[in-house]
Design brief:
Strand content: 15-25%
Order of helices and strands: HHEHHEEHHEHEHHEHEEEEH
Number of helices: 11
CATH topology of the largest domain: Endonuclease, Chain A
Strand order of the largest sheet: 4-10-9-8-5-6-7
Oligomer: single chain
CATH class of the largest domain: Alpha Beta
């Protein structure tokens, strides 16, 4: 059996294996049960390395050694491997989140904050302009600066964005409402979509046809999308009161029409 190079490359990337592990596992899957010699022949991996690779795959849960002589190996079903990898990934992510949550209480984190604060004090407000790429990054960044709002938050988006990203904004908007901040939602979408937003957030949105996407905080900061291309979407964050005031005036004017 000839292993297809494209399949080898894809499986290597999907399952986070090295090239020898990928070839050996594919060879074993194609046979179901095989000896190291048979696997070496099919995979074209040097026989001297095949034993080490099989041992590695066994530890990772991709293969099992069959009892008996000569030693043969059994391929674990791909769906079982996939489920195990998913569980391991979730466990690793949870552990990583715990580590990051505990980071704020460390002296190292305090020093990191002190370094940043000392640097920020030398940065002019008009110099703080940043580009952000990817819709999920833009929404996450928007959430972060909205958390520091003091008076008003203006959101101009397609209604579907707020419906899909309720996990990001639900608790945040609830807190802002408890603190009596003004929240204005100018959304583009159908009446049914706007109704869903109203029901989900308890904020009555204003229907608009503005071909714009932006977040404005306290009329001082703006995150403004330059296109609407999913994960290729690009936005700019401007910490400019002059620009924010100008945009706010144009926005209010458009709503009166």
């Amino acid at each position: 059996m000839l292993l297809k190079p494209e399949l080898v490359k894809k499986i290597k990337d999907y399952f986070n294996l090295n090239i020898y592990e990928t070839k050996v596992w594919l060879a074993l899957v194609s046979k179901g049960v095989a000896s190291a010699g048979e696997i070496a022949q099919i995979s074209e991996v040097p026989r001297s390395r095949t034993y080490d690779v099989l041992e590695s795959l066994e530890k990772q849960g991709f293969a099992m050694a069959k009892v008996g002589k000569p030693t043969k190996y059994i391929a674990v079903k791909p769906e079982m491997v996939l489920e195990k990898l998913k569980r391991n990934t979730m466990f690793s992510a949870e552990e990583k989140v715990k580590v990051l949550d505990n980071l704020k209480g460390t002296r190292e984190y305090e020093e990191l904050q002190e370094l940043h604060n000392s640097a920020v004090s030398f940065v002019k407000r008009e110099d703080i302009t940043t580009s952000i790429k990817g819709r999920s990054n833009i929404l996450s960044y928007a959430r972060d600066i909205i958390e520091n709002a003091e008076k008003e938050v203006v959101v101009c988006l397609p209604a579907t964005d707020l419906i899909e990203k309720a996990r990001i904004f639900s608790n945040l908007f609830e807190r802002l409402k408890r603190e009596n901040l003004v929240i204005k939602l100018a959304l583009k979408g159908t009446d049914e979509e706007l109704k869903k937003v109203h029901e989900k957030y308890g904020i009555k949105p204003i229907k608009t046809n503005l071909p714009s996407k932006f977040f404005m905080i306290d009329r001082k900061q703006v995150i403004f999308s330059l296109n609407d291309s999913g994960e290729d979407e690009i936005a700019v964050w401007l910490n400019s009161e002059f620009f924010s005031q100008a945009l706010s005036s144009l926005f209010e004017l458009s709503l009166r029409k």
